[in-house]
Amino acid sequence: MAGMIHGTRTAMLVGIISMGISVIIGIFLGALAGYYGDRVAVVKNPSIMIVMIIIGFTSWTGIAKYTRAELLKVRSLEYIQAAQSLGYSMRPEDVTWGSMLSTARDNFSAWWLAIIPGFAIFITVTLFNLLGEGLNDAMDPKLRQ
């Protein structure tokens, strides 16, 4: 049980950061498609998918340059250098839901070792999905009518 609680920290951090990145990309692409929608959508068929594909293929270089510059700046910060000198990272003995599933893969006779962290991941993903859908329903102006 303690491993499940401790593994929650890493699972939540990975989920929140990765979804944050997805939200940033989605807001950026959606804003561009919304702002330039009529002019850009005339290119072929009036489809938002085409607009998103065009924007995705043409605008990644600026984001890559900006990200590189920011990471070079962050990499030179003192606390990053201190963490590197200490060798800080996820160690193999750190308990995460993923490490618990990996350990359970080698022991088929103890099926509960895989079921419990797998079910925790399933419940967490489902709850965040339902939360996102609820927020979408609450903030969608078309559904408020």
Automatic annotation (TrEMBL):
Matching entries from InterPro entries are given as:
BP-dependent_transpt_permease
Q: Which Gene Ontology terms of cellular component type are present? A: plasma membrane
Look up keyword Transport and say if it applies.
yes
Q: How does it sit in the membrane?
A: Multi-pass membrane protein
Enumerate the subcellular locations listed in this protein's record, separating them with semicolons: Cell membrane
* Taxonomic superkingdom: Eukaryota
PANTHER family according to UniProt: D,D-DIPEPTIDE TRANSPORT SYSTEM PERMEASE PROTEIN DDPC-RELATED, OLIGOPEPTIDE TRANSPORT SYSTEM PERMEASE PROTEIN APPC
Protein name, per record: Uncharacterized protein
Which organism encodes this protein? Cyprideis torosa
